[in-house]
Amino acid sequence: MAAHLALLEDEHRRRGLSPEDARLAARYAMGSVALAKDQHRDARSFGWIEDAISDVKHSVRSLRRAPGFTAVAVLTLALGIGANTAIFSVVNTVLLRPLPFEESDRLVRVVMTVPAQTTGATERRDPVRISAAELDQLRTSVRTLSTVGVVEPTLMNLRGRDPRLQGASVSAAFFELLRAGPLLGRVFAAADEAAGAPLVILLSYDTWRRHFGEDPNIIGRTVTFDPVLGPRVPTNYTVIGVMPASFQFPNSETRVWTPAQLAPAGQRVPRGALLARLADDVSLAAAESEIVPRVRQIRVAFRDNDSANYELVGIQQELVRPVRPALIVLTVAVGFVLLLACVNVANLVLARTAARQREIVIRSALGAGRGRLMRYLLTESMTLGSCGGLVGMLLAFGGVRMLRSLATTLPRIDIGNQLSIPRIDEVGVDGNVLAFSLVISIVTGLLFGLVPALRFARSDDVVAMREGERSTVSGYRLGGHVSVRGALVVAEIGLAMVLLAGGGLLIRSFVALSSVDPGYNPSNVVTFQVAVPADLYPPARTKAFAEELVARLRSVAGVESAAYANQLPMIDLVNSYPLGSRPLPRPEPGRPPERRPEGTADIRLVSRDYLATMGIPLLSGRGFAESDGAGRPRVMLINEALARRDFANRDPIGETVFINYFPDPWQIVGVIADVRQFGLAIEPQPQFFVDLRQWTDVDVLVFPAGAYYAVRAAGGIESIIPSVRAIVQQMDPQASLFYVAPMEQVVASTLSRPRLYATLLGIFALVGLGLAVIGIYGVMTYSVAQRTREIGIRVALGARRGQVIALVVKQSAVLTVAGIVVGLAGAAMLSRYLEGLLFGVTPFDPATFAAAAALFALVALVAAYGPTRRATRVDPLVALRAE
């Protein structure tokens, strides 16, 4: 530095200056030596770290001196960050995290989509099911799959223990396909799936722990199961292995696995869902071009159904397909909540920074450049964002627990969707989620701190020093018309309007779905099943047991009626039979059955009092009578859908029909209301009801999943459940109750997915509405405070109270109307993505949009009330004196 000064002095002396003047001119040209030394030191060292630490410490002290501002900002950010973290934990587990199997992205299955015009109801999408023999043909004829197997869910009663276990019948290649090994023993070998091979079984870790006390000598032990599906013959299995606790397939409720054996000659061929692993270096498209034609040949030969569409899909892709659109919508919605939080905090920071403008100007005067000021202000905002992120992570733990609680339904395979969101039991706050929360906290801090930093880092020093703390942010306008704070509030209202409109659509959809008449009365009805030893209860004795049980239940105090059936409403078991004016010929072995032109209908085998117990209205004719017993003329009841389809122009009462290839005619004696059998959102299908006393055909399983019982109580159902258990134990000490649940709970369980979506988006909408109200209130309060002198002058010059109110309300109304218009436009563009989640409501429902706009206008009026009231109380003398 001395050398530079000496050179500058010499140059000025050569120009004719005196030594003293040359020295002063050199120092003036050089500038601050101390500042130059500091800049040189900073360039050659890590001084920015010291500055950052200093800025953080100062930010913490500054935030501690403003506890009200800090608390509001941190809680606002915590709501946005916590909600985003909770939803991301679901998205991370369900959509992003691979299945817990090696190279799970190469696991595929073939699915079949049957058009609605073929099913007669809605489009159906099912996994393709093939037999073990067809699997062997496929395995030897394809080259794009390295391993091929089948898996089929089953139900089994473990005698003497848990009455019902979910299981899976799998091919020997199943565990090789998943690349999973046992904890104890071995997995299935090719010899285990041969016809007539000794029966073996694999236990889940949970079954081994709960029912066998983690016995290390379990391998080789014989256990007895009473089958639920198939012949009613108890089966002894030899335990050959125990799977690890982490192994859960095809779902988390699977407790046992048995080999899918080839059927002996003359027996019904069991089929399972096709599962495969792609060969190395083979793409999904290449495999699909080879597999789909082969599978279509198999399916056409079996079902003669050439209208279905087949495709090869990834296992995880198919698993999350029903919930992917909803999760994307929820992710966008919760992102809007975070943006609202950012806008709100940006307004708060903008106002707070305006009050600190003198401080910023002094820093600038002392040598802080624009970049240094921006870094200082952004450090404070990121400190605030980090605090909000820490609190948000705590809220996220509670949010995840709430999500899991809302998403969990009755763990029953017979209802269908056991979980409203797949893999919800795996959702948690892990390392990825914490990293996401950290990143979003930092980004959020930058986002809401950027506008104040850009605004005040370039303040006009002279004007700011002259005006001091009264320099208003409202003077900083966009395009000379809309202030920054006003624009932020308009954006905030727009975002909240989009959330409110979307939440309103889903809530209206859920209300409409919940209000659908199911065709029966689920109130005060308790349902259950009874597990009995299979060898002691063939179909005939099972019916006798059920008849005696319902007869005893009718005598219990508080019971109005009792009934049993092969399945109840909401049970996901389809049992369709062709109906027509003549019986069909029996199919020859190896050939598909003849297709009846009249179509098929869903059969329900019920007891005499089933209609009264379930509360199903009889529309015409009569119901089942005591005289409609075995050996009497066969009668049936049909629903409205079947009457419309097959008897559109005539009265069906008295008509005679034939079921499938059975030779005995059935007379229609009554028409009942349509029952929504498979869900409230699914239109009723043609159905007919047969009295179980008259169903004597041994070719057909009477109870494919065991008998279902229903008891209607005069009052509360809790008091009769102990009596039901006592009666069952009196009839057979080896029998036990399971799946005990009120019918209302069964119906509610099928609504868990739309209820979850409506609840979450409704919560987000309310949070957005609250944040928007806070934003409106904050802007109006700040505006009134800044315009105190103006309002005082207006009052001094004779302005009336109504004129002052109009002045303030007009500003609020302009912001609110602008925000509502922006929000409605955004909602109209985005609501079409909700179409697949709605029931009974269109994405552009005008009533919902109008209600959302009216609600926002109302809350905006309420939010502006306080500042307006404060404006009317301004004393002109006090205002002028303070100014």
What does this structure look like?
By secondary structure, this protein is α+β, with helices and mostly antiparallel strands. It is 49% helix and 16% strand. It has 27 helices and 25 strands. The strands form four sheets. It has a six-stranded mixed β-barrel. Strand 8 (222-227) and strand 9 form a beta hairpin. Residues 461-466 and 468-481 have low confidence and may be disordered.
The number of helical elements comes to: 27
Strand content: 15-25%
Biggest β-sheet: strands ordered side by side in the sheet? 4-5-10-7-9-8
- From the alpha-carbon coordinates, what is the Rg to the nearest angstrom? 37 Å
Please mark out the parts with pLDDT under 50 across 5 or more consecutive residues, or reply none. 461-466, 468-481
Give the helix proportion (percent range). Answer: 40-55%
Distance between the termini: 50 Å
